[in-house]
Amino acid sequence: MIEQNYHNQKVFLTGAASGIGFCQMKTYLAAGAEVVAVDVQEIDYEDARLTKIQADLGRKEELDALVEQLKLEPEPFDIFLNTAGVLDGFQPLLNQDQATIDRVLSINLQPAIALTRAVLPKMISQGQGTLVYMASIAGLQAGGGGAAYTMAKHALIGLTKQVAFDYAKDGIRANAIAPGAIKTSMNAADFAGEGKMAQEVAKQTPAQRWADPQEVADLTLYLTSPQASYVNGTVVTLDGGWTLGH
After folding, report:
1. Spatial CA neighbour of 15 closest among 31, 34, 37
2. Sequence-distant contacts of 45-54: CB under 8 A, at least 24 apart
3. Which sequence ranges are marked TM in the entry (predicted)?
4. Is 149 considered catalytic here?
5. Cα torsion 209, 214, 217, 219: sign
6. pLDDT tens-place string over residues 148-170
7. Which position among 133, 149, 167, 230 bears the catalytic label?
8. Is the pLDDT of residue 1 over 70?
């Protein structure tokens, strides 16, 4: 049975204003955790155990300020959920200018590195910590995103595996989730009009549907639970079987 009691657990979460991150935030609050949540947008949710921070992680000065703020936290975080990210229009390399590539990398990769470096030392000092990085099927193979997005998600999986390998001896676990088609505001364009793009994606997926972001949040809850204590350095694919045929 998955441990649902996260009382006395402190969670740090990025990308909490919508989609997967919003569901993760509500799920951990419902399980009793204290949550510090970050997003570039205002987080429209209230809870006595929720601390909200509005910051643009793609802007170096704001990311640096957040890193310093985290270092001053009196108590270590038990869980870090790196969920913030942006898409890149599914364009090939020659169709993306350098500004687009820099923006995607600055949001999808650089904060994960900087924020891991901010929270990890205190996790190591307390002898335990769990990190979950939101990767993508685009981090496993080509065809799940554009060039910049695919590069960033491949690198994020590399970060996950190396953190898991280097710090397992210190009680640290790091895993990644590779979602496929998840129905969130990031994919709203696919459902525009008659939703033909969304229908086509569903047809290409063996499960014949898009996933709900709560399904990703539930998987996250398992990965950070005591029942997953031997799961480390793993990329869990949640794509309804899409990668089986692509």
Report:
1. 37
2. 50/25, 52/16
3. none
4. yes
5. negative
6. 999 999 999 999 999 999 999 99
7. 149
8. no
